[in-house]
From TrEMBL, chain A:
It comes from the Eukaryota. This is Replication factor A protein 3. Pfam families: Rep_fac-A_3. GO terms for biological process: DNA recombination; DNA repair; DNA replication. It comes from Dillenia turbinata. The lineage of its organism: Eukaryota, Viridiplantae, Streptophyta, Embryophyta, Tracheophyta. Its main location: nucleus. The keyword Heme does not apply.
TrEMBL record, chain B:
Its main location: nucleus. The keyword Transport does not apply. GO terms for molecular function: single-stranded DNA binding. GO terms for biological process: DNA replication; double-strand break repair via homologous recombination; nucleotide-excision repair. Keywords: DNA damage, DNA recombination, DNA repair, DNA replication, DNA-binding, Nucleus. This is OB-fold nucleic acid binding domain, AA-tRNA synthetase-type. One of its GO terms (cellular component) is chromosome, telomeric region. Residues 74-149 form the OB domain. InterPro entries: NA-bd_OB-fold, NA-bd_OB_tRNA, RFA2-like, Rfa2/RPA32, WH-like_DNA-bd_sf. It comes from Dillenia turbinata. It is found in: Nucleus.
Length: 121, 255
């Protein structure tokens, strides 16, 4: 068992809470652009992913990596989620895990509290 | 589960006395002991984080408890890492984003088992069904099914199920009493897709407001009236007869 390197579910809204930490996000409508990949998060916010997927682009892709800034992720792993994926339900899951019902978070989002503490001035 | 009709029968024909509550009744009945729950064989959707924080129950069976529920068979969704095939088994780590758990899939030389494990590779998302074991203080999963995920909505669904089952079990446990029984029984009996049974309504769950009579008083009176009606009906059918006065009856069949 090792729970020291969790990857939190994020959308564009919650990415800033995890800067410097490992996150997982689904991006849609990705476009390659000069060494980086641009796309939208499941809540339709722009996201820059540093790195390129090792396979052909699909409409939905999951990226696991370290959150660099409020709007970018340094990619470690890419997974194609294909061309049909329910992004809105995934977005709701992110919201459940992070915001609207914080008491849900301990089950799936283990390092939430330290991440919040770290993001505070 | 006790149905309401069984309760009425007990009260009416067991020689009187007050009606025991469901909670009292279950406490006296050893079949409701959580540790011996026959339904603990079900499949519980979990995250690695929940497994890592699980308590080992204090009895000598080294059972694992999560949210107050005895855990045996679990289902997880995550990414395969470090897959290592050996002659008799394939070991791998499963990363579901909340942590890593060590898994073993025994392959007894059967072609289907070997094919199943050949189909999964490092970095693939899979659903694992397995038996959660604790060995020398370390929890590990003995997998009996490892299947690649083809529809990635299954990942979302799995985590939503984890939240749902987690909340269902923790909330039910907090409420105690009647709800505890359903918490122990339902989540592991039914597969999550079937949904869960709502806690049974208690005798006083309804709200009644009658002028001059408090709601519970009125409820008791209604209940007594229903008993009186039952007595009249039984008397009319010749199954009971009045004795010293109109409030004392005897059964014609049992003397």
């Amino acid at each position: 068992m090792d729970t020291s390197k969790p990857a939190a579910f994020v959308n564009g809204e919650f990415l800033p809470m995890y800067v410097g930490r490992r996150v997982r996000a689904v991006v849609q409508n990705v476009q390659p652009a000069a060494g980086v990949t641009r796309g939208n998060t499941t809540d339709e916010r722009p996201l820059i992913i540093k790195g390129s997927p090792p396979f052909q682009l699909t409409t939905y892709m999951e990226v696991i990596g370290i959150a660099d800034t409020n709007q970018s992720i340094q990619a470690e792993k890419w997974t194609s989620f294909g061309n049909t994926f329910d992004a809105s339900t995934y977005n709701q899951l992110c919201r459940l895990a992070n915001g609207e019902h914080k008491n849900f978070a301990p089950a799936i989002c283990p390092k939430l509290q330290p991440a919040i503490d770290a993001s505070l001035p | 589960m006790y149905s309401t009709t069984q309760f009425d029968g007990n009260v009416a024909f067991s020689g009187g006395g007050f009606m025991p509550s469901q909670a009292t009744q279950s406490a006296a009945d050893p079949s409701f002991s959580p540790a011996k729950n026959r339904d603990a064989q079900g499949l519980l959707p979990l995250t690695v984080k929940q497994i890592s924080e699980a308590l080992l129950s204090s009895d000598d069976k080294s059972n694992i408890l999560i949210d107050g529920v005895d855990v045996n068979n679990v289902t997880l969704v995550g990414m395969i890492l470090n897959k290592t095939p050996r002659v008799t088994d394939v070991s791998f780590k499963l990363d579901d984003g909340t942590g890593l758990v060590y898994c073993t899939r025994w392959v007894n030389g059967e072609a289907s088992e070997t094919r199943e494990m050949d189909a999964v590779e490092d970095g693939m998302y899979v659903r694992v069904h397995g038996h959660l074991k604790s060995f020398q203080g370390k929890k590990q999963l003995v997998a009996f099914a490892v299947r690649p995920i083809t529809d990635f909505n299954e990942i979302t669904t799995h985590f939503l199920e984890c939240i749902y089952v987690h909340l269902y079990n923790t909330k039910s446990t907090l409420q105690g009493g009647i709800s505890t029984q359903t918490a122990m029984i339902n989540p592991v009996t039914n597969t999550p897709s079937k949904g869960y049974q709502a806690p049974p309504e208690t005798e006083f769950s309804g709200q009644y407001s009658v002028e001059g009579v408090k709601s519970i008083d009125q409820r008791v009176l209604d209940y007594m009236n229903s008993i009186l009606e039952a007595f009249k009906s039984l008397e009319a059918e010749g199954l009971i007869y009045s004795t010293v006065d109109e409030w004392h009856y005897k059964s014609t069949a049992n003397g």
